[in-house]
Amino acid sequence: MNLYGRSFLTLKDFTAEEIEYLLNLAADLKEKKKKGITGNSLKGKNIALIFEKTSTRTRCAFTIGCVDEGGYPEYLGANDIQLGSKETIEDTARVLGRMFDGIEYRGFEHEKVEKLAQYAKVPVWNGLTDEYHPTQILADFLTIREKFGTLKGIKLVFVGDGRNNMANSLLIGSGKMGVDFTIIAPKQLWPKEDLVELCKQYASQSGGNITLTDDMSYVEGADVIYTDVWCSMGEEEKAAERIALLSPYQINEKVMKNTKKSSTIFMHCLPAVRGKEVTEEVLEGQQSVVFDEAENRLHTIKAVMVATLGNQGK
Ligand code: CP
Ligand code: NVA
After folding, report:
1. Is residue 5 part of a domain?
2. 100 and 143 share a domain?
3. Cα distance between residue 293 and residue 297, in whole Å
4. Residues identified as active-site
């Protein structure tokens, strides 16, 4: 498998085999890191980390992942560069592409990261946009594989804002990888129909399954209960409306019991708002794997950089 030179904007652009390859590479890098072995696959490579929104996990995973492999990361925060305000995206992309070997971008409109990739001529990695959060899905799927040994046929139930970047990206990833994926959300917060149709096509090829419902009884049988914040970054003014819509969809101990499985795990991409989308008891409980999931951001993001930019790929 050779992903050298590829950008990583959404999982739509990757086959099941390529996603599997990235997960295997991440598992390998994780094992090595635990033994104190780091690499030099990014030696001599400089990467730009553009963050128009705040971040803990993604920023740190790109930084540590890059340094572990011998590269140099440069953080460019919202107020540090001229992107999209004083300077067009096209111009910034071409300038950064002349100086850096790879560019991570976290921001608002997904079109911006696409434009960056088009003009920069170096790999561009999506660190989250309003629409997609693909690096998070790799960490989630590595975590699920570690807990259950497989992705195929795993019943993954996402509850909450069914049209945010996490729901969209889990939908794509599940369709590609043969996961049995359900979104439980009020109808106003369902994902766009064309994306659902596309992912149903993926699922028909992978042996996966996609279900949309507003009925909480669909948590029954879930191997994984997944939730995310009710108001994503940039949507803060929608807080009251979302609380009203989503309060019946909170993940609490009763919901975890209603899966009727003691083996169900709880996942959340974090950061979490305790007492809103998830209770303190569930987040801190025995079934929660959120910190394994957070750690796996490092190994999977490192795998994306190594695969698309690593010296071995040339
Ligand atoms: N899950 C995630 O992307 O976390 P950060 O916003 O802290 O990067
Ligand atoms: N949906 C959340 C994910 C944060 C990692 C947001 O966009 O804020």
Report:
1. no
2. no
3. 7
4. 106, 133, 136, 228, 269, 297
